[in-house]
Design goal:
about 70% helix, mainly alpha
Amino acid sequence: MPLSPRRAFVSATAGPRSTTTTMASPRPPRCTSGRAASVVVVVLLISATTVVGSQGDKDSVYRDCVSQCVQSNCTGVRLRWYQAVQPQYMALTGWTCRDDCRYECMWTTVGLYQAGGYEVPQFHGKWPFTRFLCFEEPASALASLLNGLACLLMLLRYRSTVPRQSPMFHTINAFSLVSLNAWFWSTVFHTRDTFLTEKMDYFCATAVILYSIYLCCVRTLGLKHPWVSSIMGVVLILAFTSHISYLTFVRFDYGYNMAANTFFGMVNLLWWLCWCWSNRRTLPYWWKCGLVVVLLHGLALLELLDFPPYRWVLDAHAIWHLSTIPVHFLFYSFLIDDSLYLLNTEKLGVKFE
């Protein structure tokens, strides 16, 4: 892949590295419907600032390398030449001369650390990743895309199998759209990590968790008592608004974001498991739901395995995303079974379970 006029400068200071080497990022886990909501979120995002520092980007070797690279290659004639030879897909995804300087200088620094026998450092809160074309984290981007495709495939199957008259049809359809939106932003974020894409990834992931709680509420209580679902919906909207407002206007705290999502996730997990247990004798497919929620929360523990990417591509975050792909098929199998059961129950005039 052609790389710009700064190649000569970088090669003079860089240690040996693989031809498949780049930077990207492991990070904590991950928006809503309506044009107005989208506008609000974008306005909130533009208002905030986040600074993340790590050992690698604080190193004087890295900082001096970036400074010299920018001065030598990102101004005047050299910058215009860089822009002229830069691949179109790089320009369209927002890669700049300064970004490429950071990328190359990151690997210069990594090479020096490894030559000295030191552990690989992180840069700007991320591990070094191999950039493939315009993809900062190719494995995580591919995994996010595959999760989205699995979700879309099963949504189409659900729509073709379950009649619209089923009591849960519209709620499940909305949940699927929220999930698809989250996987879209996850793919975008792992393709190109920017201020906006990071926030959209995190906020949309929270939206999925909260909507899953709403889905559980509708299924377990709302079919008998619709007012309960209405109140829960308002509570969850307020929780989501408060969450993103704090992260936007007060402080973007990664620890708080993780803690909040963990709390919401535990509420979702325990609620679904209680429902599964109470219906284990009446619903033969209850185990699908129980297994799904246990798997999703169990697989999330892979995030704790924070290690430098294998061959600078595969890290714990990518493995986590890859492991959730089959779960979509099991979850929608449960949703189809349950929606058809509810439809038949409604026709028979039997009270919902």
